[in-house]
Amino acid sequence: MEAIDVSPEMLTLVGMGVMAGHRWPTSPVAFEFDFGCPATFRFHEKPAIDVLEEGDDEVRLIFIVARDACERLLGGALDLADGASYFLPSEMRAIALAIRDCAKPEAAGTPYKLAKSIELLCELLSAAAAGRLAAASGPATMSQGDLQRIAAARQLIDDQWQEKLTLGQIARSCGINRSKLSRGFRETYHCTVSEALSERRLAEASRQLISTDLPVSLIGYRNGYLNNASFTRAFGRRFGRSPSDFRACAVAA
Questions:
Q1: 200-252 has which CATH code?
Q2: What whole-number distance in Å separates Cα of residue 27 and Cα of residue 31?
Q3: Which pTM was predicted?
Q4: Which pLDDT tens digit goes with each residue over 164-220?
Q5: Coil, strand or helix: which one is 135?
Q6: Any idea where the domains of the chain sit in the sequence?
């Protein structure tokens, strides 16, 4: 596997082949990414080469990171469960794929993958600290199949948030009934389907307010709000200020 020395405290392994011969950080933990559908990652509290090499017949991505470094970034203890798998949110999956599938020449590809590795680790730890990581094994009341369908619903929201999605459409697309989706989604992600959709749309709207000069009303419409009043109300509830004030404060800063 290709080894990228991100820092003395972090090693990224990407590609195929054996892992032996690469320098590991002191007292490491490992994040092992699985690009199935849905994508997940497994946390290893005390990683071992023989365990991590079990899937060496496919292109892979593994982070080996000093526990101390993770806990500095977290600002507290790293309490992910050893051997547990967690669903990888769509935005983090995109970063992981950018590392795995990078086709840039070595001179550009190595620093690119290094930077993306830091970005992905920070996003993972931030999500862990905020309780936003959903375990890939659900409660006894939920089958593994239903859990995967609920994860697929979350990915559909993250990928198709611009469309006019309804609970019924999402449920049909993922092969699950509405009530089971509603209940399971709340248990898994600690929010409702509509709240997740709204959060995704408002996050994109906030980005566009800062990074573009598009009219506020057009940004609202592009992000699923049929009129400026409904967009302003929803944005105000989420960010505590109107879209115009949010943009003005960002520009002033």
A1: 1.10.10.60
A2: 14
A3: 0.74
A4: 889 999 999 999 999 999 998 988 888 899 999 998 899 999 999 999 999 999 999
A5: strand
A6: 2-129, 144-190, 200-252
